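Hi R.,

As promised on Friday, here is the backbone we talked about, encoded as structure tokens. Could you run it through your design pipeline when you get a chance and send me back a sequence?
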């Protein structure tokens, strides 16, 4: 005998009078994210060309830029600061 599983979904539609967060076209890249990715790639390439402590420092910088790109990509990370009633 199968148990019935309740299904509950919440759908939030944007109100018509609320402006869009982005004025970009749907095909246009989000440069806020890509600028950090490009800088991280440049530093990663530089890290492959050096060694020792400098390489470690560059790898840590790449990690920081990658985290910054993730923060820009995941825009709803402010928690309750964005909460509106």
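Update: got your reply. Pasting your designed sequence below so it's all in one thread:
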């Amino acid at each position: 005998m199968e148990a019935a599983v309740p299904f509950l979904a919440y759908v939030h539609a944007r109100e018509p009078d609320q402006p869009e967060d982005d004025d970009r076209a749907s095909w246009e890249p989000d440069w806020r994210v890509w600028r950090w990715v490009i800088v991280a790639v440049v530093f990663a390439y530089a890290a492959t060309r050096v060694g020792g402590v400098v390489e470690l420092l560059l790898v840590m910088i790449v990690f920081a830029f990658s985290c910054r790109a993730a923060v820009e990509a995941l825009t709803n990370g402010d928690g309750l600061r964005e909460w509106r009633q």
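One thing I noticed while checking it: The mean pLDDT is 80.

Thanks again,
M.
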